[in-house]
Amino acid sequence: MRKWSSEAEKIMKERFGKDTVIALATVEHEMPYVRKVNAYYEDGSFYIITYALSDKIKQIENNPNVAIAGDWFTAHGKGNNLGYFGKEENRIIAEKLKIVFAEWIDNGHNNFDDENT
After folding, report:
1. Vertex 62, ends 93 and 59: CA angle to 5°?
2. Mean pLDDT, 10 residues at a time, the chain of 117 residues
3. Residue limits of the Pyridoxamine 5'-phosphate oxidase N-terminal domain (predicted)?
């Protein structure tokens, strides 16, 4: 990951260090797919919660090149599936995401007993 200035990092935290809707683009068979996702930015990465069997995860596993766009911001990078939300290795980020996404995380859309979440 390319590093940027402390001022740029401060702006990123201010703009995206909370529940933010961004566009996430993936590729399948040389065709781009774009959808809006709720995301949280921290230390150079954007985090989303999605179902492991979703098209977006399948596309990322086949081709990790992704692009994102938010208000006045675009970027590209590599997507990475961190696996089950409830894994011990994900505990710290999962606790943060529960707080950041508190408004909707328990609305019935997510099943945290399912290891594909």
Report:
1. 70
2. 83 95 96 97 94 94 96 93 93 96 86 75
3. 12-79
